Amino acid sequence: MSTCTSASLDAAEPLAGTAATARTWLLIEQTGPWGAKALTDSHFDPDLGRALEAAADGTGVRVALIRRPGRHADLHGAPRRRLFLAHTAPGHSWIRTTTVTDVRAALGLDFSAAGAGDHRGLWEPYTGEPVVLVCTNGKRDRCCALFGRPLAARLAAEGCVTWEVTHIGGHRFSPTLFVLPYGYAYGRVSAELVENVVEAARGGLVALDQCRGRSTWDRPAQAADLAVRELLRECRADALDVVGTDSVRPEPGDADGEPPVAGAAAGSVRSWAITVAHTDSRAWRVVIDQRTDGAPAPASCGAPLGPPTRMAVASITALAGSAAAGMPLVPARPPR
Question: Which long-range contacts (CB under 8 A, 24 or more apart) does 307-310 make?
Answer without folding.
Answer: 307/266, 307/267, 308/13, 309/260, 309/262, 309/263, 309/264, 310/13, 310/14, 310/17, 310/335
